[in-house]
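INTERNAL AUDIT FORM
Audit reference: QA-55
Scope: verify that the stored structure record matches its stored sequence.
Auditor: D.O.
Record contents follow.
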Amino acid sequence: MRGKSTGERFASVAREMEAIVDNGYVIIGSPDEVAEQLREVAVNLNVGHLMLLLQYGNMSKDLTRYNTRLFADKVMPKLKDVHAGWEDRWWPNPMHAEPRAAGPAFTTKMAAE
């Protein structure tokens, strides 16, 4: 049995990815397209919390920062009104100070840098 050529494999992967996007399993696009798709999910499925994957595969640190900044600056502001009147009972709140264990001072330096 003969294996698929590289071109056939890539065409198959492209069709699979297209189906994944078309079926709404992932949300990708311009900031306006992403905001529109997220609004639709939030309203139609009553979703209030999302887990975002703004870095995937072998994306560079710079591209990941750009992608994250783009989401924060161009997408999030367009969604602030979604569920704005709802009480969020699921968002974590900080513990009261008394039962907290003493820990080291917080540092903003990341281990990977």
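Auditor finding: record pair retrieved intact. The chain is about 40% helix and 0% strand.
Action required: none
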